[in-house]
Prior knowledge:
The structure holds two protein chains of two kinds.
Chain A: H1 2-11, E1 24-27, E2 33-38, E3 44-51, H2 64-71, E4 75-76, E5 79-80, H3 81-90, E6 94-99, E7 104-111, H4 114-129, H5 135-152, H6 156-169, H7 182-186, H8 190-200, E8 206-212, H9 216-227, E9 249-254, E10 259-269, H10 276-288, H11 294-301, E11 309-313, E12 320-329, H12 333-350, H13 354-366, H14 375-387, H15 394-404, H16 407-417, E13 424-429
Helix pairs in contact in A: 2-8, 4-9, 10-13, 10-16, 11-12
Chain B: H1 3-11, E1 20-27, E2 33-39, E3 44-51, H2 65-72, H3 84-91, E4 95-100, E5 105-112, H4 116-128, H5 134-153, H6 156-168, H7 182-186, H8 190-200, E6 206-212, H9 216-227, E7 250-257, E8 262-269, H10 278-292, H11 298-306, E9 310-316, E10 325-333, H12 339-355, H13 360-377, H14 381-393, H15 399-409, H16 413-423, E11 429-437, E12 448-449
Parallel strand pairs in B: 2-6, 7-11
Antiparallel strand pairs in B: 1-2, 3-5, 3-6, 4-5, 8-10, 8-11, 9-10
Helix pairs in contact in B: 1-13, 2-8, 4-9, 10-16, 12-16
Amino acid sequence: xxxxxxxxxxxxxxxxxxxxxxxxxxxxxxxxxxxxxxxxxxxxxxxxxxxxxxxxxxxxxxxxxxxxxxxxxxxxxxxxxxxxxxxxxxxxxxxxxxxxxxxxxxxxxxxxxxxxxxxxxxxxxxxxxxxxxxxxxxxxxxxxxxxxxxxxxxxxxxxxxxxxxxxxxxxxxxxxxxxxxxxxxxxxxxxxxxxxxxxxxxxxxxxxxxxxxxxxxxxxxxxxxxxxxxxxxxxxxxxxxxxxxxxxxxxxxxxxxxxxxxxxxxxxxxxxxxxxxxxxxxxxxxxxxxxxxxxxxxxxxxxxxxxxxxxxxxxxxxxxxxxxxxxxxxxxxxxxxxxxxxxxxxxxxxxxxxxxxxxxxxxxxxxxxxxxxxxxxxxxxxxxxxxxxxxxxxxxxxxxxxxxxxxxxxxxxxxxxxxxxxxxxxxxxxxxxxxxx
Amino acid sequence: xxxxxxxxxxxxxxxxxxxxxxxxxxxxxxxxxxxxxxxxxxxxxxxxxxxxxxxxxxxxxxxxxxxxxxxxxxxxxxxxxxxxxxxxxxxxxxxxxxxxxxxxxxxxxxxxxxxxxxxxxxxxxxxxxxxxxxxxxxxxxxxxxxxxxxxxxxxxxxxxxxxxxxxxxxxxxxxxxxxxxxxxxxxxxxxxxxxxxxxxxxxxxxxxxxxxxxxxxxxxxxxxxxxxxxxxxxxxxxxxxxxxxxxxxxxxxxxxxxxxxxxxxxxxxxxxxxxxxxxxxxxxxxxxxxxxxxxxxxxxxxxxxxxxxxxxxxxxxxxxxxxxxxxxxxxxxxxxxxxxxxxxxxxxxxxxxxxxxxxxxxxxxxxxxxxxxxxxxxxxxxxxxxxxxxxxxxxxxxxxxxxxxxxxxxxxxxxxxxxxxxxxxxxxxxxxxxxxxxxxxxxxxxxxxxxxxxxxxxxxxxxxxxxx
Lengths: 437, 468
C-alpha cells in the first residue's frame, strides 16, 4: 500500500521531519536511468520510457521530433500498425507516444498478470527499438500532421499560443510549437526521422519509469528488457540558454472571432531554479489557484470580463514560459488587458498579503496528498523527477519548501524575475472601433 | 500466443482487489440518497452532490438555466457570502468545481479524507439556502456569455455539433445546448433562477456520492448530521418529452470560418434506461467498440490507415443517457477527399456490420479492454464516483456499475449485428457537414497592429523579441 503510506507520512511531515516517498533508482549497464515505486492494491502498472528528444531538439526541422514519435507504433519489427494495435489492445493495454517541448514519452498502462504483461512489454520494446519508418506510413502520418496544423488556424487560442512562444523565445529551440509548422513539416522526409531517431533514441538518453504492482525484481527485468536493443549512444548536446527579452512588445493578430485571446508573459523559471518555490507559491496566489486567485477575482468575479483568467509558470529544462491569459468579448479587450496588467504589476510591486500567503500555504499543503493519489499521477511525478534529475526526495521536501516561503522571499523573487518592462503581449481577435457602445 | 487463451486468463483475474470495496447505500428520511465506496489506497476523498436536473429538463425560453444556476451556486447563501464557499474549500486543501450535462448537475470537492465534514457542511448549506442576488447574476450572465463565445461561437466544430443536435431532434429536449441559446442566456431573471432552484434543489432530488479513504458508517453519520434537517421539495414528475419518430434522413450544412471540412452522422438509438431489452444497449456499446475502441478498431484501421480517407474518424454511444439518444459517427477527410466520400465509407462500415458477424477476435478484444478498463478506472476515485452518480441521476440503479463487465461479456456477435440492423437505418439518420469559409483577416501572413494599453508598464514597442 505504498501510495497510502507515502501520503500518510507526508501529511505529518509539516510538523515532524520524516523521510518518505522512496523512489528506487538505478542505472542499466548501458546507462539508462531507472525510477521505480511499488504500488499495491490494483493488478496494474504504469510504465514510461522518456528521451530528451522533444520539440526543442528539432533544429531547423520544426516538427521532426513529434513526427518521429508519431511514427513509432505505425510499424516495428515484423508488425505493421494494425498488428501493433491488436497486440496491445488484445491484452487491454493502453499505449501512447507523446512529444512535448523537452521530451518524448512512450507510456504503457498494463495489467500485471504475467502473460498479459509479457505481451504488452514485448510490443512496447519492439516499438521502441525497431520502428520501421516506412514510406507509406510516413506519408500518411505527415499528411495527418499537416491537416492538424491547418485546423489549428481555425482556433484563435492556437494562433495566439504559437505567436506567444515566438514572442518569448525568438529563434531559441523553445520558440516553435512541438507539432511544427506547415512549411517545415511539408519539407520533412522519412530519412530525416530515421536520423533523428538514431541520434536521440539511445540508451544513454533514456529514462525508464515503473510505478505499479511489480516487485523490484520484475521492475529490474522490465527496465533491462525495454532498453536492451537500444544502442548505448550518448547524451545530446546541452540546450542553449534562453535570452530573456529586456524590452516589452505588443502584437495583435486580426482574427474573425467574437472574443479576443490575450496572452502576456515572458520566459522565467526552470526545473532546478532556486527561486522556483517562491515563484510557484506567489503564482498560486496571483492566478494559479483557479476559483480563488487574484486574477480570477479581478477579471471574472468583480467584472465578469471573462470565463477564464489565469497565470502559470511552466518550468522546463531552461526557463519556460510565464503566461497570464484571458479571453474576452472583442470590444472589452482594452479594459480586460488593463485589469490583467494592473493585477500583475500590483502583485509584482506589492507582493502578497499575509492572509493570502497563509491561505495559499493551507491549500497547497492541505491538498498535497491529492497530487499523487492515483497511480498515473504518481508515475508522472516520478517521470518528472527522473527526467529533470530532481532530488529523489523532491516529494518529501515539497511541503517544507512551500512552508518556508515568506512575503519577503516571494516579493523578492517576483521583482527580480518578472520584469514588468519586458512583458510580451499577444492579442488575437477582431478589432472593434471605439465609437460602438 | 493464442488470443483466446489470453482472454481466458484475463477473465479469471481477481479484479475486485483488496483495496477497493463494495458500494453501500443509505437513504435519509428527507430522501437524500448517500452512496459510499471505500478506497484506502490514498488518504483522500471525493464527495459529489448530484441533482436530477440538467438541460433536458428545461423548457424553451430558459434553456441553459441549469448551467447558469450551477454558476450561481458559488455566489453565496444566507450564511456564506459570495466567494466564501471556494475560499473555505481552498483553505482546507481542497479542489472543487461543478459540471452540468443534459441529465444532471453535479458539484464536487476532492479533499484530504479528514476534511470531508467541511465539504458536507457547505454543500448542505447551499442545497436549500442559496441567496440569489441580481447584481451577481448580472456579472455571471456576462461570464457565461464569454464561455459560450469561447466554447461554441468561435469554434467551428462545436458550432456544427450544436446545429447538428438541433436538427437531429424534433420534440426531445436534447435538441438544446447545455449552455443554452444566446437569447435565453441574455434574458434570465433572478425569479427564473429562484424558481428553478426551489423546484429541483432538495434532498429528495439529490444523490450524495463519497469515494475514498473513509469509513462507511462514519460517512452515513456525518451525512445525517449535516443533511438530515433539510426540507424536502414537492418534485413533480417530469413530462416525458419523447422524441417523435423520424421519417427520413435529415441533412444540414454549417458554414463557418474554418480550414478543414468535418462531417458527423447520428442514428436514433435507445439507451440502457430507455431500451425495451437492456441487452440491446450493451450490444450498441460493443458496436461502438468495434468501430472505435482503440487503434485496432475498424475506423482507424480501415478509414484512417487502410483506405486513407480520413485524418481522424470516431464513433460514440452514450449508454447512460436518460432519454433516447444518438449513435454518432464523425470524421475529417484527408486532403483530396470530401465529406461525401466519408459518408459513403462510413455507411459501408455500417452495412458490413449489418450483413456480416463481427469476428471472435474483435469481440474478445473489446471484452479484454472492458475488463482492463474496469481495473484502470479503480485507480481514480473521481471516476468511480462519476459512474455511481450518473447512473442514479438518470434513474438507473447504481448496481449497474458493478454489473457492467458481466453484461458486456454476455454480448454475442449476433446481437451486435441485430442492433446494427434494427437501429442504424437511413430513415433515422441525421448527417451534418461543416463547410469551411475563408478566415478573413488572416489570409497569408498575419497582420500586426498595435494596441495601446494605459496600464502597460512601459510604452509598447514592436521590436523583435527573444534572442538578440
